[in-house]
Protein backbone atom coordinates (compact mmCIF):
# COMPACT_ATOMS: atom_id res chain seq x y z
CA UNK A 1 0.00 0.00 0.00
CA UNK A 2 1.29 3.45 -0.86
CA UNK A 3 2.41 5.90 1.83
CA UNK A 4 -0.33 8.33 0.84
CA UNK A 5 -3.08 5.73 1.27
CA UNK A 6 -1.78 4.57 4.64
CA UNK A 7 -1.39 8.13 5.90
CA UNK A 8 -4.87 9.07 4.68
CA UNK A 9 -6.30 6.14 6.62
CA UNK A 10 -4.35 7.11 9.75
CA UNK A 11 -5.43 10.76 9.73
CA UNK A 12 -8.91 10.01 8.36
CA UNK A 13 -8.66 12.40 5.42
CA UNK A 14 -8.36 11.82 1.67
CA UNK A 15 -6.17 14.50 0.15
CA UNK A 16 -7.24 16.28 -3.02
CA UNK A 17 -3.67 17.59 -3.34
CA UNK A 18 -1.33 14.73 -2.35
CA UNK A 19 1.69 17.04 -2.74
CA UNK A 20 0.67 18.71 0.54
CA UNK A 21 0.78 15.41 2.42
CA UNK A 22 4.09 14.58 0.74
CA UNK A 23 5.55 17.91 1.87
CA UNK A 24 4.24 17.39 5.42
CA UNK A 25 6.26 14.18 5.70
CA UNK A 26 9.62 15.66 4.66
CA UNK A 27 11.67 16.85 7.63
CA UNK A 28 13.77 19.96 7.25
CA UNK A 29 17.17 19.10 5.83
CA UNK A 30 16.02 15.78 4.37
CA UNK A 31 17.08 16.93 0.91
CA UNK A 32 20.69 17.93 1.49
CA UNK A 33 21.28 18.48 -2.23
CA UNK A 34 18.82 21.38 -2.46
CA UNK A 35 20.07 24.94 -1.86
CA UNK A 36 19.46 26.30 1.65
CA UNK A 37 16.69 28.68 0.50
CA UNK A 38 14.97 25.99 -1.58
CA UNK A 39 11.53 24.79 -0.44
CA UNK A 40 12.71 21.17 -0.52
CA UNK A 41 15.53 21.94 1.90
CA UNK A 42 13.07 23.59 4.30
CA UNK A 43 10.97 20.43 4.29
CA UNK A 44 7.73 20.62 6.23
CA UNK A 45 8.53 23.86 8.11
CA UNK A 46 6.07 26.05 6.18
CA UNK A 47 3.21 23.62 6.79
CA UNK A 48 4.25 23.24 10.43
CA UNK A 49 3.92 27.00 10.98
CA UNK A 50 0.38 26.86 9.64
CA UNK A 51 -0.43 23.70 11.58
CA UNK A 52 0.83 25.19 14.85
CA UNK A 53 -1.52 28.16 14.42
CA UNK A 54 -4.46 25.89 13.54
CA UNK A 55 -3.81 23.66 16.57
CA UNK A 56 -3.71 26.66 18.89
CA UNK A 57 -6.89 28.05 17.33
CA UNK A 58 -8.57 24.70 17.88
CA UNK A 59 -7.53 24.50 21.52
CA UNK A 60 -8.49 28.09 22.33
CA UNK A 61 -11.78 27.91 20.44
CA UNK A 62 -12.80 24.70 22.21
CA UNK A 63 -11.76 26.14 25.56
CA UNK A 64 -13.70 29.38 25.14
CA UNK A 65 -16.80 27.49 23.97
CA UNK A 66 -16.57 25.32 27.08
CA UNK A 67 -16.31 28.34 29.38
CA UNK A 68 -12.59 28.17 30.14
CA UNK A 69 -10.84 31.38 31.09
CA UNK A 70 -8.19 32.86 28.82
CA UNK A 71 -5.58 31.80 31.37
CA UNK A 72 -6.86 28.23 31.32
CA UNK A 73 -6.82 28.24 27.52
CA UNK A 74 -3.23 29.49 27.51
CA UNK A 75 -2.22 26.76 29.97
CA UNK A 76 -3.90 24.12 27.82
CA UNK A 77 -2.18 25.45 24.68
CA UNK A 78 1.19 25.47 26.38
CA UNK A 79 0.79 21.86 27.49
CA UNK A 80 -1.09 20.30 24.60
CA UNK A 81 0.59 22.07 21.68
CA UNK A 82 4.03 21.42 23.18
CA UNK A 83 6.59 19.39 21.29
CA UNK A 84 6.31 16.62 23.90
CA UNK A 85 2.53 16.31 23.45
CA UNK A 86 2.74 16.48 19.67
CA UNK A 87 5.50 13.86 19.62
CA UNK A 88 3.22 11.55 21.64
CA UNK A 89 0.56 12.00 18.95
CA UNK A 90 3.15 11.14 16.29
CA UNK A 91 3.98 7.98 18.23
CA UNK A 92 0.31 7.06 18.83
CA UNK A 93 -0.39 7.33 15.11
CA UNK A 94 2.84 5.47 14.18
CA UNK A 95 3.91 8.13 11.70
CA UNK A 96 7.69 7.59 12.01
CA UNK A 97 8.02 5.09 9.13
CA UNK A 98 6.51 7.65 6.77
CA UNK A 99 8.67 10.63 7.73
CA UNK A 100 11.62 11.37 5.45
CA UNK A 101 14.40 12.48 7.78
CA UNK A 102 17.74 14.08 7.02
CA UNK A 103 20.44 11.51 6.22
CA UNK A 104 22.31 12.20 9.46
CA UNK A 105 19.31 10.92 11.46
CA UNK A 106 19.47 7.56 9.66
CA UNK A 107 15.69 7.19 9.76
CA UNK A 108 15.41 8.04 13.46
CA UNK A 109 12.60 10.51 14.17
CA UNK A 110 13.54 12.84 17.01
CA UNK A 111 10.86 14.34 19.27
CA UNK A 112 11.24 17.72 17.52
CA UNK A 113 10.95 16.17 14.06
CA UNK A 114 7.92 14.14 15.14
CA UNK A 115 6.20 17.16 16.67
CA UNK A 116 6.96 19.32 13.64
CA UNK A 117 5.55 16.63 11.36
CA UNK A 118 2.28 16.51 13.34
CA UNK A 119 1.98 20.28 12.98
CA UNK A 120 2.79 19.97 9.27
CA UNK A 121 0.12 17.30 8.74
CA UNK A 122 -2.46 19.58 10.36
CA UNK A 123 -1.24 22.43 8.15
CA UNK A 124 -1.54 20.20 5.08
CA UNK A 125 -5.10 19.24 6.02
CA UNK A 126 -5.95 22.93 6.55
CA UNK A 127 -4.71 23.91 3.09
CA UNK A 128 -6.11 20.82 1.37
CA UNK A 129 -9.64 21.45 2.65
CA UNK A 130 -9.51 25.12 1.59
CA UNK A 131 -9.12 26.28 5.19
CA UNK A 132 -12.37 24.64 6.27
CA UNK A 133 -12.28 24.51 10.07
CA UNK A 134 -14.91 21.75 10.31
CA UNK A 135 -12.89 19.45 8.03
CA UNK A 136 -9.73 20.03 10.05
CA UNK A 137 -11.59 19.20 13.25
CA UNK A 138 -12.42 15.75 11.84
CA UNK A 139 -8.75 14.88 11.32
CA UNK A 140 -7.60 12.19 13.75
CA UNK A 141 -4.52 14.23 14.68
CA UNK A 142 -6.71 17.11 15.81
CA UNK A 143 -9.10 14.68 17.48
CA UNK A 144 -6.21 13.39 19.59
CA UNK A 145 -5.70 16.93 20.89
CA UNK A 146 -9.43 17.43 21.44
CA UNK A 147 -9.35 14.78 24.18
CA UNK A 148 -7.93 17.51 26.41
CA UNK A 149 -11.42 18.82 27.01
Automatic annotation (TrEMBL):
Top-level taxon of the source organism: Eukaryota
Protein name: RNase III domain-containing protein
Any one GO molecular function term: ribonuclease III activity
Provenance organism: Clonostachys chloroleuca
Residue span(s) of domain RNase III: 3-130
One GO BP: RNA processing
UniProt cross-references to SUPFAM superfamilies, sorted A to Z: RNase III domain-like
